């Protein structure tokens, strides 16, 4: 790079040759499993999802209603002051239409993901979730109102997936 | 009283870069991470005419352990990084690591504790298969986000869409960055993806996660880079052309990334302000001659130009369209070819930008040399969950 450098080290390999075993590799697959304790704030949040409700915490100092809920306000750095229910409707803050699964394999039918700013929480407080019941992904817009579609009560497990997805409230 | 004490202590010793090295950036390299670290470090030592015995401390930068499947990667890489029997630190702030590592090296020397420091960054993304993307899924919140089957590209797509929405931008305007950087990379011997492409090529490339298409994105790569730092007195013994680290800044935003307006990276601005203040820069667009903002995606270059205060919010696409950011423009941006053109071995990619400024400011960048006789440059990297900014200001 520097004009003085004549040689840059590195020997490129073809992905194909690696796959076909033409270059030596050593393989390993980790078997570690994890079970996370869901914590003080999120345990309550997940319990409320089981009831079909979304709960937030409040900070009296900065006057924010925060979702996801937390036991401390990261700005004021003090304990939050209380719990309050917010609505299961909101506005699309931003969205993406993904043709990629988590492992980068391609999806035939895209999934729509969005940050949904929930009504009742402070301005700009969003969560990420899926958007469904859209006839054409090109019709999804930032600013669109959406509503949570819940799993039937018996199927809920106290997980973010107790909300199946959000669907647009307006006429497309 | 407290602030007086603080400012007195700041920048106790002036620190220079006296040597730099980079390996090839490729999708798969035969060399191990240790070997790549050695190769880049050896180049930097040779450039400065030094041996390992002259090095008092070593800083290693490398991104998630999950890529290599080697836990505690710092220790694993130590010998390759030249750390044998030396004070050694591994730093990691996600994608921000490549510019953060020389900042960590800076405080080693600026503090007066060491008169030299070798900074080396390495990444091998090829070890994780079928695709390193899957290793990225482990960065997300295990309770709220992972059950949704997150993909890393999503967060870029969400940010890009918000940025486009807020400033009413078209994809055509953003694609110009990819066209420019891939073309710049044609002049870079380490580059993985130098190419002559058009805006139409970008717009017609595969949709990955709208609005992100294949040619909006940098590839996954293997590679390493290194720089050699020295205190002022030592630097002047080593070279007649030291490049000074005159400003350093770094900042993290909240991990509640869905609670922020992603259209603008406040944390990059805070890091930039810190670095500019130290460097005495009052008017960044006027005083910066060459910039290497972090460009893992084309819109990120624009996003970061704005965060670096190189233009007003929403103005970077206009400057790009006007040719201001071309190599021969008023503000040459990513003359190296950036991550979009050179490849993205994460930590190494960030440090490559610092190497590029080192060569640009010394007038040694060959075909890539910007013609405006640059005196001052800024490099920046970005990472963690869209929340980390690291900024370095260099001067000759």
Index terms:
heterodimer; A: 172 residues; mainly beta; three-stranded antiparallel β-sheet; 10 strands; extended; B: 396 residues; alpha/beta; Peroxisomal Thiolase, Chain A, domain 1; two-stranded antiparallel sheet; 11 strands
Describe the fold and architecture.
The complex is a heterodimer of chains A (172) and B (396). Chain A has one domain (40-168). Chain A contains two helices and ten strands; from the N terminus they run H-H-E-E-E-E-E-E-E-E-E-E. Chain A has helices spanning 15-19, 40-50, and strands spanning 54-59, 64-66, 72-73, 78-79, 82-86, 89-100, 106-118, 126-131, 145-150, 163-168. Chain B is an alpha/beta fold. In chain B, the strands form two sheets. In chain B, strands 3-2-4-7-1-8-11-10-9 form a nine-stranded mixed sheet. Chain B has a two-stranded antiparallel sheet with strand order 5-6. Chain B has one domain (2-130, 218-395): Thiolase/Chalcone synthase (Peroxisomal Thiolase, Chain A, domain 1, 3-Layer(aba) Sandwich). At the A-B interface, strand 6, strand 7 and strand 8 of A face helix 2, helix 7, strand 5 and helix 16 of B.
What's this entry about, in short?
The complex is a heterodimer of chains A (172) and B (396). With 172 residues, chain A is mostly beta strands.
Could you give the topology of this structure?
The complex is a heterodimer of chains A (172) and B (396).
Chain A: H1 15-19, H2 40-50, E1 54-59, E2 64-66, E3 72-73, E4 78-79, E5 82-86, E6 89-100, E7 106-118, E8 126-131, E9 145-150, E10 163-168
Antiparallel strand pairs in A: 1-2, 1-5, 3-4, 6-7, 6-9, 7-8, 9-10
Chain B: H1 2-9, E1 15-22, H2 33-48, E2 58-61, H3 65-68, H4 73-77, E3 88-91, H5 97-110, E4 116-124, H6 133-136, H7 152-167, H8 171-185, H9 199-204, E5 207-210, E6 212-213, E7 222-231, H10 232-238, E8 243-252, H11 266-279, H12 284-287, E9 290-292, H13 298-307, H14 316-321, H15 338-342, H16 346-361, E10 376-383, E11 388-395
Parallel strand pairs in B: 2-3, 2-4, 9-10
Antiparallel strand pairs in B: 1-7, 1-8, 4-7, 5-6, 8-11, 10-11
Helix pairs in contact in B: 5-16, 8-13
């Amino acid at each position: 790079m520097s004009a003085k450098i004549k040689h840059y080290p590195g020997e490129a390999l073809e992905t194909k040759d690696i796959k076909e075993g033409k270059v030596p590799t050593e393989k390993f697959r980790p078997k570690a499993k994890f079970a996370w304790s869901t914590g003080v704030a999120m345990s309550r949040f997940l319990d409320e999802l089981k009831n079909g409700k979304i709960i937030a915490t409040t900070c009296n100092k900065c006057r924010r209603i925060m979702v996801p809920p937390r036991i401390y306000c990261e700005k004021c750095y003090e304990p939050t002051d209380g719990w309050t229910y917010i609505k299961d409707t909101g506005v699309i803050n931003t969205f993406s239409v993904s043709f990629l699964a988590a492992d980068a394999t391609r999806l035939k039918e895209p999934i729509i993901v969005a940050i949904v700013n929930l009504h009742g929480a402070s301005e700009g407080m969003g969560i990420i979730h899926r958007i469904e019941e859209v006839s054409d992904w090109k019709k999804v817009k930032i600013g669109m109102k959406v509503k949570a579609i819940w799993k039937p009560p018996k199927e809920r497990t106290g997980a973010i997936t107790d909300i199946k997805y959000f669907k647009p409230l307006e006429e497309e | 009283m407290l602030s007086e004490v603080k400012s007195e202590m700041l920048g106790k010793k002036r620190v220079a870069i006296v040597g730099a090295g980079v390996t090839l950036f490729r999708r798969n390299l035969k060399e191990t991470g240790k070997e790549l670290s050695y190769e880049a470090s050896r180049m930097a030592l040779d450039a400065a005419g030094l041996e390992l015995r002259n090095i008092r401390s070593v800083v290693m930068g490398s991104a998630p352990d999950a890529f290599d499947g080697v836990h505690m990667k710092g220790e694993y890489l130590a010998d390759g990084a030249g750390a044998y029997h030396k004070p050694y630190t591994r730093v990691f702030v996600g994608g921000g690591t490549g510019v953060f590592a020389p900042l960590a090296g800076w405080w080693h020397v600026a503090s007066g504790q060491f008169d030299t420091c070798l900074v080396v960054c390495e990444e091998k993304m090829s070890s994780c298969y079928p695709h390193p993307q899957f290793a990225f899924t482990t960065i997300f919140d295990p309770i709220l986000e992972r059950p949704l089957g997150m993909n890393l590209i999503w967060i870029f797509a969400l940010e890009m869409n918000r940025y486009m929405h807020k400033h009413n931008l078209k994809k055509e305007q953003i694609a110009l960055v990819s066209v420019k950087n891939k073309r710049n990379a044609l002049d870079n011997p380490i580059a993985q993806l130098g190419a002559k492409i058009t805006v139409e090529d970008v717009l017609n490339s595969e949709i990955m996660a709208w609005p992100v298409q294949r040619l909006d994105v940098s590839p996954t790569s293997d590679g390493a880079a290194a720089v050699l730092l020295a205190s002022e007195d030592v630097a002047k013994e080593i070279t007649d052309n030291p490049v000074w680290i005159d400003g350093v800044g770094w900042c993290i935003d909240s991990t509640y990334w869905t609670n922020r307006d992603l259209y603008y990276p406040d944390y990059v601005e805070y890091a930039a302000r810190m670095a500019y203040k130290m460097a005495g820069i009052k008017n960044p667009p006027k005083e910066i001659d060459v910039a290497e903002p972090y460009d893992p995606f084309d819109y990120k270059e624009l996003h970061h130009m704005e965060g670096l205060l190189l233009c007003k919010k929403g103005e970077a696409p206009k400057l790009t369209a006007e040719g201001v950011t071309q190599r021969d423009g008023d503000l040459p941006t990513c003359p190296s070819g950036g991550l979009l053109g050179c490849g993205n071995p994460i930590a190494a990619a960030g440090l490559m930008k610092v190497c590029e400024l080192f060569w640009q400011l010394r007038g040694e960048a060959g075909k890539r040399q910007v013609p405006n006789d640059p005196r001052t440059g800024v490099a920046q990297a970005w990472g963690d969950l869209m929340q980390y900014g690291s900024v370095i200001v260099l001067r000759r």
